[in-house]
Amino acid sequence: MTDRDVDVLSRAPLFEALDEQGAKALRANVTEVRLARGQTLFNEGETGDRLYVVLEGKIKLTRTAPDGRENLLSVLGPSEMFGELSLFDPRPRTASAIAVTECRLAGLGHDDLRPWLTGHPEVAVQLLRALAQRLRKTNDVMADLVFTDVPGRVAKALLDLAERFGQPSEAGLHVHHDLTQEELAQLVGASRETVNKALADFAQRNWLRIEARAVVILDIDRLRKRSK
Amino acid sequence: MTDRDVDVLSRAPLFEALDEQGAKALRANVTEVRLARGQTLFNEGETGDRLYVVLEGKIKLTRTAPDGRENLLSVLGPSEMFGELSLFDPRPRTASAIAVTECRLAGLGHDDLRPWLTGHPEVAVQLLRALAQRLRKTNDVMADLVFTDVPGRVAKALLDLAERFGQPSEAGLHVHHDLTQEELAQLVGASRETVNKALADFAQRNWLRIEARAVVILDIDRLRKRSK
DNA sequence: TACGCGGTGGGACGTACGTCACACTATGCA
DNA sequence: TGCATAGTGTGACGTACGTCCCACCGCGTA
User: Fold this and answer.
1) Partner of B225 at 20 to 30 A CA spacing, among A28, A122, A152, B77?
2) B14 to chain A, closest Cα gap in Å
3) Within 13 Å of residue B12, how many CA atoms lie on the same side as its CB?
4) Alpha carbon distance B142, A145 (integer Å)
5) pTM above the 0.85 mark?
6) Cα torsion angle, B184, B190, B192, B198, sign
7) For all residues of chain A together, what is the average pLDDT?
8) Using a CB-CB distance cutoff of 8 angstroms, which residues of chain A are in contact with residue B140?
9) Rg of chain B's alpha carbons, rounded to an integer?
10) Does residue A210 lie within 7 Å of nucleic acid chain D, judged by its CB?
11) For the residues A11-27, what does the mean pLDDT come to?
């Protein structure tokens, strides 16, 4: 594991509360996983005994409805954690994890982790905080599904992605989200076609420029206003 | 606090991991709150320093959109906990708590609780489990908003309420949910009128009978099938 | 008795968005 | 070089559900 990896890892909620010594000890249990774009890490319904932190690349968490339609819970990038729910509440995985780009992950066995939870209360408290934040965010998204129309939700999703993955450049805020429009649609809970039309509309108004699996945000204020 | 209250309280996730002695100590910090139907316990945006467990009655958690429309996150009954998010992640409340029926609550100050989190890892672990379950459930609801039509969501909501508040009787499963159709509509993310029509349709098919702030479920299997 | 008020029942109408259909453009792969 | 396959762009059409209506019912208050 490179220095850079150690750095990325230390920003994950799991490690945030640990001192250098503790972090080192916990890192000793980490195994690295590499995935190519489209490759599946785990599937909905399987029993999970590990959690992961993204070191490099992006991974999506998806749920599949009985009829095959898919729903994207979130797209995770470096330092973000997932797969921890079955550590706290031992049940089968409720989502599948699939690589959106080539990516590298740090995996940690639940058995290696449990002693840290009981022995280091500050770790547990940090995790409670992380879950509380997630719950808040999820509630926000739920409210949007009820109150906001599709273009609004697309705008919101782009702003969220921009915050996490955006790179300022001469032309504007470059957001290389790596998602197809189909995936973007699953993320906002709409059909690919309507998302496409919303994007086209934004582009026509010069709020952004569409690129392959990316957008360049040109007028973030308008986009923000549209998202409310 | 009556014996009955102690019993209700002990089923809350906070107390579940404690032995009789610990539970007694924690109970010493509890203050009781009484509310009449419609009364507000706290409002979205306020800073919160307490969490609550329902002793008797029902309380709803609601969010208000900027334009005034409301969204019901959940309806909580005895032994259920709320208001804990701002303990783990100190931010203003993201929902308001309003009594659906006359009710009694046990309130616990965050300051009284924090030592328990750090000193009793089993409590923290129990809370992690509770939050993980909530997160799972919230994700389910989100998927329903995307994939299931309004009648389906109404059926699901009724089944959920039935599981938590249902009373078997000669006629059928009596679910005294105490919600107006307006509130039910806010719970499933739909308009009052469509919810009304969905209920009327179910009643006409003899799947249930509508009563004031209650339903009697007559054919739970059909209702279950419709909810999928 | 009358009057409001909160809640329910249900019809008429408009529309946002899903579905279907097809054309077009990249990107790989033989 | 060509062909397949994945992704994008756009129009036509149907429909589920929101909005707007109003009628009705029960209940409390004057």
Assistant:
1) B77
2) 13
3) 28
4) 8
5) yes
6) negative
7) 94
8) 94
9) 18
10) yes
11) 90
